[in-house]
Task: structure prediction
Amino acid sequence: MYYRKIKIVYLIKALIIIGCSKKEITFHQDIKPIIHQNCAICHNQKGAGPFDLITYQDVSKRGKMIVEVTSKKYMPPWPADTDYRHFLNEKKLTQKEIELIKEWVESDKKEGVWSNNDILDELLTDQEKQQPDLTVYMNKPYTTSGVNKDDFLMMKFPFELQKDTFIRKIEFIPQNKQIVHHINAHLITYHEKEKDDIFAGEYVVDTESFSDLEAFKKLDILNNNGTYPILTSSVSNYLPGAEQTEYPSGIGGFSAKKKNVILVNDFHYGPTPYPEKDSSYFNIYFSKTPPKRKIQETQLGTFGISEIIPPLIIPPNQIKSFKTSAIITKDISILTINPHMHLLGKSFLAYAVTLKEDTVPLIKIDNWNFRWQYFYTFEKMLKIPAGSEIIVEAIYDNTSDNPDNPFYPPQEISERVGFNGRGSMKTSNEMLQFIISYLPYEIGDEYIQLGLE
Result:
């Protein structure tokens, strides 16, 4: 009996040792899937990241830095609260993944055996297959003012086609990613004989010096008879940290004529101490079929359909709350949302309240970061019934405790309007916007997955 007990004890110890023996952590088997899914989408030659995180060598040589930024949850950036609402393609590490990366770095960063779990390779392969049908370049490279001030421009990219054409996607490619801050682009199409020469006129205008109409005349955007051409708004956007949004087949798309202009009505270059050149461009992808459901857009707050209450004026040394709201007059299916504030932004909350007094969470950002402003796409279309009120609540911090405050000591900052009637989009001024991309609701929309297959 005694020896039997000893055998059982040894057996238990052996099982404990076997159970507790740690599996070797390697890059290819354990770390690469995490990095490729969450980091390499930006950290590649075509992405916004300043260096690549693709190969074992890329990740290994920056191991300590990766541990530091992931442990502090500074990277990967995903400002939205995932406990409030989930979105497509979230970039957020679990605590287990953070600890796994740390353990890998502290255990000599073993490479392991290559395995075909290369998520990034699959994504890049899909991208490479999607070669653009047309690339539209700047007339000539733009050179920034280089005196530590923002450049706000209106710029046109004219292009001609052999025939009327359906367009699936218009993609903006920033050439100098260090200075391009944001763009918002529209598509102008001209009917036959409405415009003689789309290449006439200037190609770029300083929007702080001219009104919209004056800028249109300088760019020679108007029809021959002085009327406005057909304009499709927001066909392409770029913001800090934003990824190109692409929806499943049948959703979105545009119709182009033989003569067209991509009009960037807001082209913002950040301040630089010396002149820098940029040659950003657009890739255009054609479609064989016409758009089935054209995406519509609205926005609350600055430049939008709703008033900000109280007016967006933030006195120095104050933390102040603001609100804006709008009633939805018809059933809609929301695809993507984009919250926008500047450097004083502290938190952002958006939700809808239906006529039945049900609350529909839209987005919650507890710690606003101006550097990371995404277009958040829902996992499935989100139905908002007619009569619902969309409400935005935002808090701004104009104290010296805000490390992003552009002024020290703090100064009054507001949503200013220049002499030309355009609201100031300077980084040192403020904005409160909530942009919504949507479709008129159709039965079954709420079951449609928005991720590309």
User: Anything to note?
Assistant: The longest strand covers residues 180-190. The CA atoms of residues 242 and 401 lie 27 Å apart. Residues 2-129 form one domain.
